[in-house]
Amino acid sequence: MRNNTSIKRGLKEQIFFLREKGLSFKIIAKQLNCSTGTISYHISEGQKEKTNIRRKKQRDELGYKILRFKNNWNQKSHIRNYNIHIKQVDDIRSKLKRFMYGDKKRTNRLNQIIEKPNYKPLDLWRKIWPDFQQNNKNAQAVNQWTNKLDFDENNQPIIYPYVRCRITDIIINALTESHIDHINSNPNDNSFENFSIVHKLANQAKTSMDNEELYIFCLNYINVFEKYKNKCTN
């Protein structure tokens, strides 16, 4: 059945009119700005019925239905997930560059100078995942204390983007749960050895403390908590 657009355009009538003049399919298609398949559909004997039968058969096939369902289901989800991934990668690049070159607003305000690094952002990433490649991200993380390949509690390798937080020893997703940390808490020290990845909450708790200061701070908290935990309700 022809739709309103087809009737309004009068394409079928124009095709028959030009064909009666002896014009070829290619010339008609060029003049009417349509495909030769459209012309064949209207002119060839039985072509319309054949096309309708073929379409019905395709639509009735299980594979076609599954494919249509998957495409409709996954298209928006795929686009959304891709955009999220791109944002995560951009955020990581920004964090790596801030580690390498410092926070420009802060350094300019304090008249601080940060030495130009002799490594690339990808080198920092490979400090954590030595076999990391942009086209092959199936790389195992190392333990940030021992620099040896790391495994979880079930003896399974910790694979990118996961890594063990240097402060808490918790396995985290580096793309969504991490902060880039200066090990000695000196924001001007952008040396390769001073780079680490930690849980964002641990980094917020650490603030500007170095490892020893953080250790004493945590011990004090533990002692206070043990002393008063039975006397408080929260």
Summarize the structure in words.
This protein is mainly alpha-helical and 234 residues long. It has helices at residues 4-9, 11-20, 25-32, 36-43, 47-60, 62-101, 104-109, 121-128, 200-206, 211-228, and strands at 162-164, 171-173, 178-182, 195-199. The chain folds into 2 domains: 4-60, no CATH class; 81-227, no CATH class. It is built from 10 helices and 4 strands; from the N terminus they run ααααααααββββαα. Helix 3 (25-32) crosses helix 4. It starts with a helix and ends in a 6-residue tail after the last helix.
List the helices and strands and how they pair.
Layout: H1 4-9, H2 11-20, H3 25-32, H4 36-43, H5 47-60, H6 62-101, H7 104-109, H8 121-128, E1 162-164, E2 171-173, E3 178-182, E4 195-199, H9 200-206, H10 211-228
Antiparallel strand pairs: 1-2, 3-4
Helix pairs in contact: 3-4
Radius of gyration: 32 Å
Which ranges are low-confidence, i.e. pLDDT below 50, for 5 or more consecutive residues? none
Number of separate strands: 4
Class computed from helices, strands and strand pairing: mainly alpha
Distance between the termini: 72 Å
Characterize the overall form.
elongated
What is the helix/strand order? Answer: HHHHHHHHEEEEHH
Provide the number of structural domains.
2
Short description:
The chain is mostly helical and 234 residues long. It contains ten helices and four strands. The chain has two domains: 4-60, no CATH class; 81-227, no CATH class.
